[in-house]
Amino acid sequence: MKNILVLGAGTAGTAVANRVSLGLPAGWAVTVVDPEPDHLYQPDLVYLPFGLRKRAQLTRPRESTLRQGVRWVARRAARVDLAGRRVVLTNDDSLDWDLLVVATGSRVAPDATPGMLGREWRLRVHEFYTSQGARALATALRHFQEGRLLVSQIDDPVKGPLATIEFALLAEEHFRQRGIRHRVEIAISTPGAGLLPGPTANRVLRRLLRQRGIRLTQEFPIRSIDDEHREVVAVDGRRISWDLLVAVPCHLGARFLESSALTTASGFVSTEPRSLLARGQDHVYVLGDAAELPIAKVGSAAHFAAEVVARNVHHAVRGDGRAEAWDGHANTFLATGRNRALFVDYNYDVEPLPGLFPAPGIGPLTLLRESRRNHWGRKAFRWLYWNALLPGRPLPLPSRLSLLGKHAPGGHLGADLRA
């Protein structure tokens, strides 16, 4: 029996395992390695601090998300042996593989920033990227009456980079509904010069923040957190004060991969952006947050990449010499409060642009423009996630970026965008 081994059962790993298992010829098996008993719907973690979701609504038992025929090994991987084509588990058992798919995601690393885990941790310094952190932040928000709320992304890359903006906008609505918005200053700091690829989307986002009275400081990579003076300190020594700090911690790759010669200094796997093969390997595929790619770490990118990886795994199993290329397609919702949301759609080569999605002239989603339809689209996506994306069923969305329905500033798409 030959084995396709998938490391990780998050969005990327589950979707690719389920897709690969469909139509697999006799003599091949699919095995998934992940120690966690539950699957977490991460996009809605941002709602937990505001009491808009409960943790039980975001999880399902792991075994219920994997198709029949996909073997789940509830163990933690300890080491990848590329030469021997095996993965060693923490209990010293090992699993052999003929094809390997790395979908180990990313992990938040608050300990990577000096001062974050100081005396104010989970009191006045918080994160919402874990359910434990989101619940602690909910308590802090309930007791926060006045002062500066600072939402800071420590460094790049992180999964869901727009979550910083999303949280600040939801916080603005939260304080407004409590009648204390005039007593709370909301500020954001980001490490880079752009919130999204390209100038068009960034102009839209900056305008939206100005309209909501939210201060934005860009190009502010954080070196440390000074909890004694309640300040974040940039690498160049600049400081921003806070009364309540919501930090998006540094994200790193899986620890056990560090000894595999697959990873970069941050622990993410160096990946060919089109083939999604690990660099220098012809039998190791990488997707989702684990991959070091020139695209944001968002769930939709993992889904679209899973389609390509699954097809290429099938090509490799059949030995037909074929391979498909991924265009880096990603799209994401940004909840903006007031029952509205933004939606963006882009890839490696085309920046987020205004228009309608997925059908020109119809939509129903509006690109780079707040709408109630986008809000309902974000809510509907949760159902699609559990019932179509994870099981490996086709979504009613194009897997490759389409330019239909989009328009560039100036009223048309130039030849450079059609290339």
Task: Name some characteristics of this structure.
419 residues; alpha/beta; FAD/NAD(P)-binding domain; 7 helices
Short description:
This protein is α/β, with parallel strands linked by helices and 419 residues long. It has seven helices and 26 strands.
Structural write-up:
The longest helix is centred in the C-terminal third of the chain and has 20 residues, at 299-318. With 419 residues, this protein is an alpha/beta fold. It folds into three domains: 2-106 and 253-318, 3-Layer(bba) Sandwich (FAD/NAD(P)-binding domain), CATH 3.50.50.60; 110-251, 3-Layer(bba) Sandwich (FAD/NAD(P)-binding domain); 330-418, no CATH class. A five-stranded parallel β-sheet has the order 5-2-1-9-21, with helices on one face. The chain has a five-stranded parallel β-sheet with strand order 11-18-12-13-14. Helices cover 22% and strands 26% of the residues. It has helices at 11-21, 131-143, 163-177, 199-211, 299-318, 372-389, 415-418, and strands at residues 2-7, 28-33, 38-40, 59-61, 70-73, 77-81, 86-89, 94-96, 99-102, 107-108, 125-126, 147-153, 184-189, 214-217, 222-226, 231-234, 239-241, 244-248, 251-252, 269-270, 284-286, 291-292, 330-337, 340-346, 355-359, 363-367. The chain contains seven helices and 26 strands. Helix 1 packs parallel to helix 5.
Outline, from the CA principal axes?
globular
What share of residues is helical?
Answer: 10-25%
Q: Which stretches of 5+ consecutive residues score pLDDT under 50?
A: 411-419
Sheet bearing the most strands, described?
5 strands, parallel
- Name the CATH class of the largest domain: Alpha Beta
Which secondary-structure class do the elements indicate?
A: alpha/beta
Rg, rounded, reads: 22 Å
